[in-house]
Every structure is written in structure tokens, then in C-alpha cells.
Sequence to fold (520 residues):
Amino acid sequence: MRKKVDFLVIGSGIAGLSYALKVAKFGEVLIVTKSDSDETATKYAQGGIAAVMYTPDTYEKHIEDTMIAGDYLCNMEIVKMTITESTKRIQELIDWGTQFDKNEKGDFELGREGGHSEHRVLHHKDSTGFEIERALLEKIRQHPNVEIWEKYFTVDIITQHHLRQKVNRKMDDIDCYGAYVYDPKSQITHTVLAKTTMVATGGIGNLYASTTNPKISTGDGVAMVYRAKGIINNMEFVQFHPTSLYNPKEKPAFLITEALRGFGAILKDGENLSFMNKYDKRESLAPRDIVARAIDNEMKQSGQEYVYLDCTHLNKNALIDSFPKIYAKCLSLGIDITKNKIPVLPSAHYSCGGIQVDKNATSSIQHLYASGECASTGLHGANRLASNSLLESLVFSHRASLHAQKQIENINYKEDIPDWNDEGMIHNEEMVLITQSTKELQSMMSNYVGIVRSDLRLQRALDRLSIIYRETESLFERSSLSVEICELRNLINVGYLVIKMAQKRKESIGLHFNIDYPKK
Ligand code: FAD
Ligand code: SIN
Fold:
């Protein structure tokens, strides 16, 4: 089947939905999402969304905190732009129906997280993402110009290369004309022709054995754009959240929000001693890269599989009232957080790198935008400041919408695009090969390309990856299309990018820590 739309949006998290809501005023929008519409990383966000709301906070302070967390590898212009637009974007989110917690005076109750010098995190108890996703989806579902294809999988974007004369030289430009979208139910791959395409496919957490990310986070957008020869950068900066709940059987790993440390919880070792003072003067509230490495080191030294987060000294009622989800979750596992310490360990959480975009979220491919976690905007540098991700998604989706609405009138559909060809492909009965290769990949990435790296580990990872790559490409060519094989292929592409970019960076900075290059 062929379909034509003005705006194609791949992804229904905060980045995709906030963009769709804005461009829907200017044309027809199709949102393609590979699971239930609300099954996104956005829905699981706990701590909240960082924004400058009141004094004593200032834009300058938030800018400085972002730069420090990012080890000064952030793009200063982008940092300033994002932060100074934060207050307006938050107001929009509220106008769309999102409710943030307020105190008795009616002011927003602002939380604090690692690396923030002020209380500036708006939240809805410990379920902020759930509330944002709810409000956005409610608004989207009322819009007559928006159609949602739920449980449809985007396989690849449709692109063509053109030699164009630019100033004094010929340039090879890539244009995007939409995407091939697979419906697993009917097993039909649709050709969706679009004037503009927004990639908002989220993170890459499932590249690792333990992650806080939902199952959908398999780096599909980054892999698609990489295959189409778009520019990807900063993939070596994979953020591990210091505190996911230790419960080895559970996937994804349940997050214990950093806001709990902002509330006064303290990291402790098996001897009940706080240890963060050995690593950083900001102790439990140091930026994430530092805390995750400290925990990793403590675990290696003690031989234990976790450390503890201690909340037992905090006011019981306030603790339960502010973190009801965490309280209930831990209690269901026999841990009463008002009386018992919580066993925690780091898990893969966030990709700072991705599809390179400019301040309007335009990528290196014409008519292709990227926003949210799959994009690399320059905001995070070598390490993202907590709760800056939801904000980044809003700011860049907003800017993309302004850009796209101006472009749309001058873009025509490209009619001569061939349909997806899967003739002659045999039915895939080798599910076991896909599952095993995925596990192998995740274990290899966790062991060699995790929190601490070395040149030798990275080379070993690349050697192992090339075997899995060859096997999977051969399987892909012989098999009929399935979501599982596409996701594995995407994870392999993303794994390759992480390893290659990590090998290229001959220093330890932010989230990229290589023992062969001691941190200055
Ligand atoms: P997502 O919300 O992940 O949405 C991605 C969408 O793309 C999904 O709809 C998915 O189905 C779709 N998709 C992907 N591939 C395809 C495909 N091939 N075809 C069709 N559809 C596809 N950040 C903060 O700022 N504050 C927090 O408090 C916070 N807490 C977090 C807690 C957890 C547990 C996690 C996992 C993350 C947290 N983050 C937080 C990070 C933040 O939630 C994410 O970075 C952000 O929500 C990403 O939004 P997104 O719209 O880019 O992607
Ligand atoms: C958390 O609540 O600790 C997660 C915040 C984030 O990832 O920004």
C-alpha cells in the first residue's frame, strides 16, 4: 500500500507527540509507533523536567550546570538557546494539560538532582513521564489532522542521493522522501511518501544487558539514518544511571530516581558506610558519570553485585508521599524503604549521541528532522545533566515544527519510489538465532564497552561484533521481514557506532572512561 502525508513522525514519545501537535495545524500528520502509543521511555521518566522557574535560580546557573556536567564538550550556543527557551516550553506543556506538583502557596514544588546547583526539576510525584505522555496523547487523539499507526514498525527511511552544484563545487546531497513501514499483523510493508519526516525513535538502552529503557529502545532511528549515510555523532557517550533497583530477573531494570538523592538519600556500601566522599565533594549528588563510576569501583572492590541507597533517616510520610511508585515497587519485593536500604546498581540509561542536528533539528539529510533521545543536538556534551532530556525534546521539536511548516509548501512528493521488495524471501523459522545473537551482543557490549573501557576491550568488542554482523546480515537477506530481526540489525549498527567512536576518542572525558587514557 502507498500513502501520502505532509508530515511523517516516527515515534510517539515526548519528541514525536509535541512536534506532531504543532505541525498538525499546517497539514496531515501520520505518527508511526512500533508498540502501544504510550509505550515509550517518556512514560517511564521519574525525576522530572529541568527548567528555570523562580529566583534564586537563573538561566546562567542552569547553563553553567549543564556545561559542567557535560565536561565542557557541550555546544555553548545550543545550551544557552535550550535553557533560555525552557520556561516557555514548560508553560506549553502545562497548557496542554500536564500537571506538575505544587506546594501550599501554589508554586511549583521543584526537585533537585545530581549536578544541579538549584532546585529546578518540575515533577509529578515520581511518575512525571507518565503524566506528560498522558496529557500529550490525550491532546493528539483529539486532533482531526493526526492519524496514528500503532504497532507498525519503520524499517528504513526512503532516500536518494543527488549531485548538486553548491557555490563552487558539486555536493552529494541526500534527500528523504518518507519511509518503509511494516505491519507485522498483515506482513505488508507500506511505502509512506512524506514531504518531511521526523525521526523521534528514542534511545538505545537495549544494546546492553541491563537497562532502564523499555523494550522499544533499540536505536532504530539512529541505525536507519546511519544506513542512509546521514551524519551520526557522540555515540561513545552512553550514560549509565547510577541507581537502578537490583533485581536481576527484571527487564527493564526499575529506576530509583536521582531525585531521591536530591531528597536526602545517601549511597552506602555493605558496611553501612557512605563512600561518595572518596570520589567527589558533591558526594551522592555529583553528576551521573562520576557516581556511576564510583559505584562500579565499589562493586568491583567488594565483589558485591550492588551498593545501597539509604532513605531510612528521612521523614517517613514525606518520603512515601513524594515517591509513592518507588515505595510500592520496593515493598512488592519485600523492601520497606522507610526501614530497609535499597540495593542498587548502574544500568544503561541514555544515549547522549545520535543523529547530528542543528538548532532547528534538521539533520544532514534534506527534509529529515530528528528530535529527542535519538538526536545529537550538542546540549549534553560528554554527559547529560539529569532531567535535561525531556526539556531538550520539547525545545527541538518546537524548533523543528517552525522550520518544517515553512518548508512544506515548496516540497513535492517523490512519486517514482519503488515499493519494498521482499520477493523470494523464505519464512523465518530461526527465531532462536535472533534471540541468541541479541543476548550475545548485549553481554559483549556490557563487558567491553560499559562504564569502564580500554583499547583492548574495545578492539575485542569490534572483533566479536563483526562476526555477529556478518551472521545477521546473511540471515536478514534470507528471511522474511520481522520486527525482531530488524531490531537486532539496528542494535548491531548502533553497537558498531558506539565502539568505533569510543576507539576514536583517545582521552577519558565525561561518560567515556578509558583506562589507557587517565582523566586529566
Ligand atoms: P521515547 O519516549 O522513547 O519514544 C520513542 C518512540 O519511538 C516510541 O513511540 C517507539 O515506539 C517509537 N519507535 C522507535 N523505533 C521505531 C520504529 N522502528 N518504528 C516505529 N516506531 C518506533 N529524562 C528526563 O529529562 N527526566 C527524567 O526524569 C527522566 N527519567 C527517565 C527514567 C527512565 C526509566 C528512562 C528510561 C528515561 C528517563 N529519562 C528522563 C530520559 C527520557 O525519558 C528520554 O530520553 C525521553 O523520554 C526520550 O523521548 P523520545 O520522544 O525521544 O523517545
Ligand atoms: C531520574 O529520575 O533519576 C532520571 C532523570 C533523568 O534521566 O534525567
